[in-house]
Specification:
heterodimer; A: alpha+beta; 14 helices; B: alpha/beta; Rossmann fold; 13-stranded mixed sheet; four-stranded parallel sheet; 15 helices
């Protein structure tokens, strides 16, 4: 099924010719405190991708050592032949087909009704496994979002996107009729792939020495070079669409405080 | 020519490739979740194609598509968009009309840049002023925030203006100036009499980061033209009481009729230039000294104790010509929350120029004197006309002979000044900076004084013709 829906040249067999199964894993997103932090902080600590990569790598080793099937951790990054905006494989497609996420109005970010915003990783294996089904229902848009859409013509994610990269329409029954995502606007705000070469080009072309120094040594250049060399929060999401998403922030499994309270109560320790 | 792609090919294909790529994605319904492969194929193009798919559709090589797409993305890319994020979150929501790009805040014309280039303070002096608290981040606009809005700020024969009205009209005028293209750092000349219009114009200019050039009404047309040209003044604001505005000028009342926009306000920076002083040199060349918010505010705080203002007081400025000194005194009134008055009838305080740079402050029960020039503001004070003048706080003084040798007790020479209220230099293309300001920041006042009364660590001066 993954091969059927994957774009040409981007199916699992491109990586592992005898692949039999795709295992997709999700880990939860930010803490409740992080959701309330300023965007500057969110871009730094909101993402949880490091954890999912470790889990996926571990799983591929585990399958090989315990079950004897070749496995590979699916590269989560861009396809080096095409630059920075085309992924090598679609982790989103895997998760959607496996039923641990459905496409949302927020630029097709996947949402899970209980765990909200998840970070996904995939393992390809020659081990045959039974396939899961996609979700029967899409949790997006939530009923409160449908209500706002009917009142104002926009869902919260559309309304609060800082660069207005989201738009679309709902059907009368509240399901998605059309989702539009201007990825280039989002990339300009969050991913900044073109930052470094743009700064260097500007520095070459300006005749103003102070402007040149600002381009190369100013706050923007320094923070970008820091991120690139230290490998931290590069190309982070801005999170503003997710911050106002009730599914991403308020699901039963999303909130570590509620989850912890339930667990403590179950263990007889009191819920608070 | 990478991959055989010419600039013409980029022109031809960039929009087509961009629109087909993942840069623009549209999904109708939920075809993948519903495993509806046919519906997915139907809208495959709208969901965004990868480069091999685009190449197959339009008949270019994959490498050519990738190159054209990446170049198109790069040309559309705007730097600094991420800054929008930094004011968001934690309950803040994004509003485009509330966002101001940091670069936009400091967007300046070439003339404004030239004015800044002409400004220069000695690093050691600046450090001293800041460490001593003589310079701070205080700006003219701060005055509005602390006053009772219904108190009277300005009283003239024609009208009274409350602090609330002063603030509102200044905002409106700033909006009016912005509407006609005046930007941060531009010079705005004003040919207005001492009164509400002058003070409001000054506030408006301070608010939007422009530099105010007050011109006295007694100047000849030639002189006005010379100053306006020399200062590269963006516009001249004048009255239109006779119903006509001179060519090239803008009427004050037209400017204050502007609608204030919802856009973020202008950012006032204490180190920014706020005011130009004017003088005609011996060769009849106009000159303009540059004063900053910090210069003006330090003078205000120095002169305030001499004024001894109390609530409801009114300072009469009607005897003063329009200048940096009179605007500084008006600022004193606004800082204290009292009224600047151009109708002496009800004034509690009167400030009058006496001789050779001296100003006398008179109230019913006290008199005080300060000395200063347009370029220095208030730098010396004296209790009485015939007593020795002493330097005001933060001001350094010395007396030199024609060879620049420093003179001592009983000797007579030129008074030189260094201090927090001294101009930052003269406009570009002027030779005055070198002639009037020494390399280490001393201002040559051109005033002859005799050193006297050095007792108690304080140097006193007798200024010829006044207190001698």
């Amino acid at each position: 099924m993954v091969e059927k829906f994957a774009p040409v040249g981007h199916g699992p067999s491109e990586l592992l010719p005898k692949v039999a199964s795709v295992i997709t894993i999700g880990v939860t997103g930010p803490t409740q405190g992080t959701w309330r932090a300023p965007a500057k902080v969110m871009t730094s600590v909101g993402a949880n991708v490091g954890r999912i990569y470790r889990v996926a790598v571990g799983l591929s080793f585990y399958i090989e050592s315990h079950y004897g099937y070749r496995s590979i951790y699916c590269p989560p990054h861009v396809d080096p032949e095409f630059g920075a905006r085309l992924p090598m494989q679609s982790l989103k497609l895997h998760a959607e087909l496996a039923g641990i996420g459905a496409r949302s109005l927020a630029g097709d970010i996947l949402l899970e009704p209980e765990f909200g915003l998840l970070y996904y990783g995939s393992v390809y294996t020659e081990m045959p496994l039974a396939a899961d089904e996609p979700m029967a229902d899409n949790p997006c848009p939530a009923s409160s979002c449908v209500k706002l859409y009917k009142e104002s013509g926009q869902t919260p994610c559309q309304k609060f996107c800082p660069v207005q990269c989201l738009s679309g329409e709902l059907n009368d029954d509240g399901t998605v009729a059309e989702m539009n995502f201007d990825m280039y606007r989002c990339a300009e705000l969050c991913q900044q792939y073109e930052n470094m070469p743009t700064m260097i080009e500007r520095a070459f072309t300006t005749n103003d020495q102070l402007a040149r120094e600002e381009m190369l040594y100013g706050a923007e250049a320094q923070s970008f070079f820091y991120k690139a060399t230290a490998g931290v929060d590069t190309n982070a999401q801005c999170f503003e669409c997710m911050r106002v998403c009730p599914i991403a922030t308020q699901g039963k499994g999303v909130d570590p405080i509620r989850r912890g309270a339930a667990a403590r109560e179950a263990a007889g320790m009191g819920g608070s | 020519m990478p991959y055989g792609v010419s600039e013409q090919m980029i022109d031809t294909y960039s929009e087509l490739i961009f629109d087909l790529s993942l840069n623009k994605q549209t999904r109708r319904g939920d075809p993948i979740r519903n495993l509806d492969h046919e519906a997915w194929l139907e809208q495959r193009e709208a969901t965004g194609l990868n480069d091999p798919e685009i190449a197959g559709k339009i008949g270019l090589a994959v490498e050519q598509v990738t190159f054209i797409r990446n170049i198109t993305e790069r040309r559309l890319f705007r730097l600094n968009q991420y800054r929008k994020l930094y004011r968001l979150g934690g309950g803040l929501r994004y509003r485009e009309d509330h966002y101001q790009d940091p670069e936009e805040k400091f967007d300046m014309s070439d003339d404004a840049v030239a004015l800044r280039v002409a400004m220069h303070f000695s690093p050691s002096q600046v450090k001293k002023f800041i460490n001593a608290g003589l310079w701070s981040d205080e700006v003219l606009g701060d005055l509005m925030a602390v006053k009772n809005p219904d108190d009277l700020a300005i009283i003239s024969a024609a009208e009274t203006v409350t602090y609330k009205q002063l603030g509102q009209r200044a905002k409106q005028m700033a909006a009016g100036l912005a509407e006609i293209g005046v930007r941060r750092g531009d010079v705005v000349a004003a040919l207005l009499p001492m009164g509400p219009e002058l003070f409001i114009s000054y506030f408006a200019c301070a608010q939007m980061g422009t530099v105010f050039l007050p011109l006295v009404l007694s100047l000849s047309c030639f002189e006005i033209g010379e100053y306006v040209r020399h200062c590269h003044s963006r516009i001249v604001v004048c009255e239109n009481t006779a119903g006509e505005v001179p060519i090239g000028a803008v009427a004050y009342h037209d400017l204050v009729a502007a609608q204030v926009s919802d856009r973020p306000g202008f950012v006032q920076v204490a180190a920014d230039p706020i005011l130009l002083t004017t003088s005609m040199r011996k060769n009849e060349q106009p000159d303009a000294g540059i004063l900053t918010h910090q210069n003006m505010m330090s003078a205000v705080h120095t002169v305030m104790p001499l004024l001894k203002l109390a609530p409801q007081d009114q300072i009469d400025l009607s005897a003063l010509p329009v200048s940096s000194v009179s605007l500084m005194l008006a600022q004193c009134a606004f800082t204290a929350g009292v009224s600047a008055v151009t109708d002496p009838a009800s004034a509690t305080h009167t400030v009058t120029p006496t001789k050779d740079g001296w100003y006398e402050i008179s109230t019913a029960d006290h008199k005080a004197h300060f000395w200063g020039q347009s370029d220095t503001l208030a730098v010396l004070s004296a209790k009485q006309n015939n007593s020795a003048a002493i330097a005001l706080p933060g001001v350094e003084t010395r007396v030199v002979d024609p060879d620049d040798a420093i003179l001592g007790d009983g000797e007579t020479g030129e008074l030189q000044i260094r201090g927090p209220s001294l101009i930052a230099g003269y406009l570009a293309y002027s030779t005055s900076s070198a002639e009037i300001l020494t390399a280490d920041g001393w201002y040559k006042t051109g005033t002859e004084v005799t050193v006297s009364d050095q007792s108690g660590g304080t140097v006193g001066y007798s200024i010829k013709g006044v207190n001698q």
